Amino acid sequence: MKRFFWLLVISLLSFAFAALPMQNAETVRSQLLQAQLKLMTNSEEAQGLLETAKLAFADLGLQDETLAAQFNQAEHALNNGDAVAFASARATLWTSLLHASYEKVQSAIQNNDAETAKRWLSLREFRQATRFSRPNADATLAVKKFAEGSLSREETLAVVRADLLDTYQARLSEALSDVVAATKQNFAMRGAEASALAAGYFNILKSAYTEQRGEEATLQAEQAFTNLVATPNETTLGSVNTVLQGFRAAPLSEKETLRRAGQMLRFISLVEVEYSRGIRNGQVAVDLEIREAISFRDGAAAAFADLRASLEQLDATKTERVATIFANLEEQLTAASQKTSVASPAEVRAQTEELTTLLKEVMPEAWQKQDSSADFDVIQETLSQMENAVKEGQYELAASASLEAYAILESGPEARLVAFAPQFKPVIEGLFWYGQNENKGLAYLIEQRAPLADIQATRAALSAELVKAEKALSGSKAPGAITTNAAIIVFREGLEAVVILASLLASFKTAATLRYRRPMWIGAALALLASAVTWFVMQGALLAFARYGERVEAVVSIIAIAVLILITNWFFHDTYWTDWMASFHKKKGQLVKTGVGASIGLVTLGFTSIYREGFETVLFLQALVPESNNLTVLLGTAIGLGATALIGYVIFQVQTKLPYKKMFIVTAAMIGAVLLIMVGNTANVLQVVGWLPTHPLRFIELPYWTGLWFGLYATWEGLALQAVAAVFVLGSYFLAEYLKERSRQTKVAAVNHKAVSQN
């Protein structure tokens, strides 16, 4: 009984393994490879390996005369000791197995046989993973959903075809590159194998080629590949490239097209930046910068390769020129890295500018809109450059790369993060800068020349957060979403400034204080003008501004707080209480004399209150324009400004209807609240850029919206500074009350003393 049980188990396991086509196919491939290695040294052993491959092929159950004929060709080459022919036959057999699997998967899906589709899908290849393209598992996921009943037959077929055709076209391109390398080095065996692989991959793509170009073009393409297999050289390779020009078996989806277009433009813009940093006086001064320039060129070229077919349909001449420039750049950058020839930064810049100009002339307008997914890809690649710099001990370059990555974030996706997923912003900023939580910020670690392992840990945490943020932003690019985004940004950023202005201006309603309105309005008007100028200056220089955005905000915020504290103190002790007491005692006389210092202070307060918000608002709105258009962003801006103005009007109206002392108390409370928020936000910015230490509260975790709207962040420094600001506001109030009471008592005592003297 026990023996029967184990025989049953073994039989079931054998059946299970036999049912996996990939295992048998891999046996065929490995045995043929071993046979090729033994071909010149032990023909008898090579023959035995070929027989084993035949048995494994028989287990696949494919009744295919073409495959059988290909085995015969391999055997004929082996018997003749022809290693080149055997290499070609081996490659042809492998791609034929892949083709058979592809057909089996499609047939199984069409017959609603998900299990058979799963088994045969195991026999496939993937795109080679690089920094710029990742292997897909779309077909596997689609078949799984198909088996579960959550994806229709038609949808499953579309996904499987797109995934596999895209994969095999990429493998075709790789095989053709191998043909080029083999012919240059006169490696006959390698050239034969690569040519046969290319022909085999094209055979998988042939049906798609026929659908797009027709039977006659397909016959010409087949002949070109036949010639290539027979004689791999520059002529036959050129013919193949000609028939493939503009062909893409599985067109990119609209989303992926936009992503690749965004990657291409971003990477191109960074090539010259990195190259210029690496060249000094006509010589390579920093090898790492040249390698980074090469990486960015390769990234742009990879994206261009995916888009080339579509671009050629739009303008073949300009697309060919783009390809030529990419090739020229590759030669120049390679020569610089090898120090055989060093092109000037001006030459490289001229080519990248021509590339950008040509691409923008050819690409549809929709492709040129900023794509956050592409930005995230470029950020990740730039962080990889940072990590490479640390590996080589180049901490200054690492700091520059980290700052570059942050600038791309701030000039691109951050605007949408602020509106749609603000919870990620403080976490990501902390990991970029001086965060002191479980993973310290990159800026802090690089500044301290921390070990590579520590920097890699923070980079891993940052990459994970960036992936989450990218996922959170997916699907939020509709015009309505962009308009809402812009409105929220303008409303939130303008609210603090409006509250300050409305509070202070509403208090200037007596004849004695009306003169204080003018310098405040002048400062506010100058800030609006400066914000408008910043908008125009930032166009075309957004990345450069983004690199210093946090620092500019920090400086302006410090000035705003300092002036607000001075003005608040001045109002408490001079303007409000002096005027109120004069009114209370019904005394006449000159109240508060306006000096030059007071006017300058009010102008400065009006300017900084507006511009500190205006600068960041412009930065965010500029980042939104490429994702939509000026009209959409301006509509959101108008809505935000309208809401902000309405709040200011309501505040002003409410205050003017209050009795003077109550109005003063409401105004003072609002100014105090704004001061606390401003102090909290400024402390956070100072911590982000490393100008203030960061010690998080271990026993409390505040939700992100408390920082977004109220400036409350769970750090000792931020809360302590807000406490100091609160003490100042309350202290000024009670001190003013004390001085008022003491003045009143002094005057009463004087009146009583005079009365007693007269009596």
Sequence stretches where pLDDT stays below 50 over 5 or more residues: 1-18, 574-594
The amount of helix comes to over 70%
Strand order of the largest sheet: 1-2
Rg result: 36 Å
How would you characterize the largest beta sheet? Answer: 2 strands, antiparallel
Strand content: under 5%
Mean pLDDT: 77
Helices, by number, come to 30
| Number of E-type strands | 2
The N- and C-terminal alpha carbons lie at a distance of: 132 Å
Total of domains: 4
How does the helix and strand content classify structurally? mainly alpha
General form: elongated
Summarize the structure.
This protein is mainly α and 759 residues long. It is built from 30 helices and two strands.
What does this structure look like?
The chain is an all-alpha fold and 759 residues long. The chain folds into four domains: 22-128 and 137-244, no CATH class; 252-368, Four Helix Bundle (Hemerythrin (Met), subunit A) (Up-down Bundle), CATH 1.20.120; 393-474; 479-745. Helices cover 80% and strands 1% of the residues. It contains 30 helices and two strands. It has a two-stranded antiparallel sheet. Strand 1 (279-280) and strand 2 (283-284) form a beta hairpin. Helix 7 (138-148) runs antiparallel to helix 8 (153-185), helix 23 (479-507) crosses helix 28 and helix 25 packs antiparallel against helix 28. The termini are far apart. 42% of the residues are buried.
